[in-house]
Design brief:
Length: 109
């Protein structure tokens, strides 16, 4: 019976590791999406400033404020995903270090 318990334990551990890897990958994709949104918002802001300067005028306050808010929101979202990813990575590393030092992982005779 001890062999089946060991197999079940290892399968559970492998499942948790796979789920953690999947979660980290999802966070990386979300962070990439947020960064692309920030880049797009910054690009729209840059074009608005360029067009205004080309026409020898200033960017209208409302237009600038809306574009700047879009950049700030997308950057904040990307930062939030970066923090979540850092936390997930730290949890995974901590779990791996516990597994390496676990004295209960010996074999039975």
């Amino acid at each position: 019976m001890a062999l089946w318990d060991r197999v079940r334990t290892e399968l559970d551990r492998a499942g948790r590791v796979a789920q953690q890897a999947f979660d980290e990958g999802r966070l990386r994709l979300e962070m990439l999406r947020a960064r692309r949104q920030a880049d797009g918002a910054a690009q729209r802001l840059g074009y608005a400033v360029y067009r205004a300067r080309r026409e020898a005028r200033d960017v209208v306050g409302d237009e600038y404020a809306a574009l700047a808010r879009a950049v700030e929101a997308a950057e904040a979202e990307a930062e939030r995903y970066r923090r979540l990813l850092d936390e997930a990575t730290a949890r995974r590393r901590q779990a791996m270090s516990f597994q390496r030092t676990d004295p209960g992982g010996g074999t039975t005779t």
